[in-house]
Design goal:
By secondary structure, the chain is an alpha/beta fold. It has helices at about 25-30, 55-65, 85-95, 115-120, 120-130, 135-145, 155-165, 170-185, 210-220, 230-235, 235-254; strands at about 5-10, 35-40, 75-80, 100-105, 195-200, 220-225.
């Protein structure tokens, strides 16, 4: 019997724990004995009123103050993180190499490996910028049209609208998060723990080439979803969890 898994979940730009939607439900169904902890990014969710630092490294410091990872011989800690959240996860691994024993990174990128116009596609950037002029449901609908590819789910739209009403992320926080992401570099560092990449081939926000370069540079597995968009865990949560289970099984075989 392996150790009990403890999953730490981190969302991306202007997203928070509640944006995971039904993903945690599927995760518990496939890993019945697991523990799940959510870690919000400064400027969103529980850390909505935290001043967002201009660097990913400082974000990690702030988040560690609020969410110290439980290091225990009884648990195997794994991080599941999306986009900006995955950059935070990588920086966390670099700063605190013993906290996690594995990581699953979704639709992320590194400034060391990819140009800025692939890390956020110009068309997506301008469409997201247009949301400055929108409010309420229309704003959330515009965002979801950029980050998802399948027909808009009513439940997902209503969830995002509710979160935006209750805990709206300011544009100052959004800008600061974008600046931190654009400046993020890892240099020659490589993770010393098992790492797996999940990505969307038809991501309209971040080029698939970013994940492909990262997989090649670090010689880590990459599984691509053929139709979903940037918000893979929202658009196809069951597929995402099944791939995590598959990759975890592959790790045990080796």
């Amino acid at each position: 019997m392996g150790k009990q898994k403890h999953f730490y979940l981190i969302r991306g730009l202007v997203r928070e724990a509640h944006h995971w939607g039904v993903f945690p439900k599927h995760l518990r169904e496939h890993f019945p004995d697991c523990k799940i902890s959510f870690m919000d990014i400064p400027g969103a969710g529980e850390l909505l009123f935290e001043k967002v630092p201009f660097t990913i490294e400082e974000m990690v410091d702030k988040m560690h103050q609020h969410y110290p990872v439980m290091v225990s011989e009884d648990f195997e800690n794994h991080v599941i993180a999306v986009s900006l959240g995955a950059m935070i996860a990588l920086s966390w691994m670099k700063k605190r190499p013993h906290d996690f024993q594995g990581g699953y990174l979704i639709n992320t990128s590194l400034g060391d490996l990819s140009p800025f116009y692939q890390r956020i596609k110009p068309k997506a950037f301008f469409k997201l910028a247009q949301t400055l002029l929108l409010t309420g449901r229309k704003r959330e609908e515009q965002i979801l049209k950029v980050v998802t590819n399948s027909p808009l789910k009513k439940e997902l739209l209503e969830l995002c609208e509710q979160i935006a009403k209750e805990r709206p992320v300011t544009w100052e926080s959004t800008l600061r998060q974008l600046i931190a992401a654009s400046r993020f570099r890892l240099g020659l560092w490589k993770p010393a723990i098992p790492l797996y990449l999940l990505s969307s081939t038809k991501d309209k926000m971040v080029s698939i080439q970013c994940s492909r370069r990262l997989a090649k540079a670090w010689d880590v597995p990459l599984i691509e979803h053929p139709t979903a968009g940037h918000e893979l865990a929202d658009e196809d949560p069951l597929w995402t969890v099944e791939r995590i289970l598959e990759l975890g099984t592959r790790q045990r075989e080796f």
